[in-house]
Specification:
The chain has 287 residues and is α/β, with parallel strands linked by helices. Helices cover 40% and strands 16% of the residues. The chain is built from ten helices and twelve strands.
């Protein structure tokens, strides 16, 4: 039986993945430490696959050197140890941020990365370092994910969920952008697929729910998921953009009002995988 090690198992995605593996009777173990370079892999015995979810996002409490240490240096040290111990497949959760997301962008498998932020650069350098270690015996799988939503999701999704939960109305009635998201249930299913599928090794994948929705539709889906009615008001975009900038959150402007479309057709073509859950189904987990 394939033996799996999951790093970052105590995090949002890691918790969902380990629950899924447990239900599916997979043979797995976990490594919960996030900020250490000292992975004692030999203590875990024979390992076949490592799913590396541990990482650090860019926030006010994270220094640049710490982000690079965790996301880049620690990842490559783990990969080197994995290769030395005969691990056959290394699955790395990266981010769509490696493309240096700008407004109105569409991304497919030919799109070249252009990371701009400390977080994005650290993730992309980790990708490059992992690819340099690849061999027929050590296969790397890279998954570039957009915003992941679902029960327990942190950061921006948590903010949107709180907004929808507290307000009787939402200000996105005039927002008709197109964005790709991925439900944590779909991401977990895809990671599991990459664990077992022989064609996943050596590949880089984009992941999403397979649809593009506006912020208006996304927040409406959240409200339906939690059984709450919310009226979408036609607030002018310029007014909302001015508001986000005035409170020192200019990055939210792109995330709420910009377009980001992902072409994930490679997943179906190469692995025969399609998202098993619709957005409506995934939002019901929020109740």
């Amino acid at each position: 039986m394939t033996r799996i090690l999951v790093t970052g198992a105590s995090g949002f995605i890691g918790g969902h993945l380990t629950s899924h593996l447990e239900v599916g009777c997979f043979n797995f173990t976990t490594f919960n430490e996030r900020l250490t370079n000292d992975y004692q892999l030999a203590d875990y015995g024979k390992l076949d696959v490592i799913v590396h979810l541990a990482g650090l996002a860019h926030n006010k409490t994270s220094a640049e050197h710490e982000i690079f240490n965790v996301n880049f240096q620690s990842t490559i040290k783990l990969a080197n140890k994995s290769k030395d111990l005969g691990v056959g497949k290394f699955i790395f959760l990266s981010s769509i941020a490696v493309y240096g997301i700008s407004e109105g962008i569409s991304i497919n498998e030919q799109t070249l990365p252009l990371p701009k932020t400390t977080f994005a650069i650290s993730k992309y350098q980790a990708e490059l370092g992992l690819k340099a270690l690849e061999s027929p015996e050590f296969q790397v799988v890279i998954i570039r994910s957009p915003l992941v939503y679902g029960r327990g999701a942190p950061a921006n999704f948590d903010l949107l969920l709180k907004l929808v939960s507290k307000l009787p109305f939402l200000p996105f009635g005039l927002v008709n952008n197109r964005r790709s998201y991925v439900a944590v249930s779909n991401l977990i299913d895809f990671i599991t697929h990459c664990i077992i599928h022989p064609n996943a090794g050596g590949e880089t994948f984009l992941i999403s729910d397979g649809i593009h929705v506006s912020t208006k539709d996304f927040t409406s889906a959240i409200s339906k998921g939690i059984n709450k009615k919310a009226l979408q008001l036609p607030i002018p975009l310029w007014l909302m953009q001015l508001t986000t900038k005035s409170i020192g959150k200019p990055e939210i402007t792109k995330q709420l009002f910009g377009t980001l479309e992902l072409d994930c057709s490679k997943n179906k073509r190469l692995l025969g995988w399609s998202p098993p859950f619709t957005m409506a189904q995934a939002m019901k987990s929020l109740r």
